Amino acid sequence: MKNSRPIARTVGTLMLAAFLLYGIGSSIATTASPGALLTTGAVMMLLNSAAVIAIGALMLPVLRPHAPAVAVGYLATRIFEGGFLAVGAVALLMASAGTNFLAYNIAMAGLGIGSLFFCVALYRSRLIPRFLSVWGFVGYASFAAGCFLELAGVAGAGLASTVPGGLFETFFAIWLIARGFGSTAAITVTAPA
């Protein structure tokens, strides 16, 4: 058995870092003219992609004892998200804002759907307080719906729908840093073959 506290802190830190990297990076990249500033923004967006994939990888051994299929699914969700967000960053470097818009909304819709299962697993396992799991479920459902509406042409729906999920991710990250996972979160580490 291994203590999950360092993993919780790392996941929380990566969630906050990803939020800042993408938020600042996309703001820079979508408003800058071609040059060093645009490249800086795109690199920050690519670093976000690495961070979100790392979150999925770090959660794998924590979730696996409680919900093995969800653990793998959550990693796949984060890889999907990171991949599409990386496509969007590269698209901005190639002056294709439309492709970035599509990539972002596809990534976030996928994150929203995949994270519904994640929140159910968190609820059942009591790795975090149940109110947080419910908040996350509602937030991710809202987020996915908003992204699908954006893709269907309803301008502004995605932005409005990010509030519950964004607040959840921020609070969840701070919770993980400050409190960690619940007592059921001791993880099993398999010895290398």
From TrEMBL:
<feature type="transmembrane region" description="Helical">
    <location>
        <begin position="75"/>
        <end position="95"/>
    </location>
</feature>
<feature type="transmembrane region" description="Helical">
    <location>
        <begin position="45"/>
        <end position="63"/>
    </location>
</feature>
<keyword id="KW-1133">Transmembrane helix</keyword>
<feature type="transmembrane region" description="Helical">
    <location>
        <begin position="172"/>
        <end position="191"/>
    </location>
</feature>
<keyword id="KW-0472">Membrane</keyword>
<keyword id="KW-0812">Transmembrane</keyword>
<protein>
    <submittedName>
        <fullName>DUF4386 domain-containing protein</fullName>
    </submittedName>
</protein>
<feature type="transmembrane region" description="Helical">
    <location>
        <begin position="135"/>
        <end position="160"/>
    </location>
</feature>
<dbReference type="InterPro" id="IPR025495">
    <property type="entry name" value="DUF4386"/>
</dbReference>
<dbReference type="Pfam" id="PF14329">
    <property type="entry name" value="DUF4386"/>
</dbReference>
<feature type="transmembrane region" description="Helical">
    <location>
        <begin position="101"/>
        <end position="123"/>
    </location>
</feature>
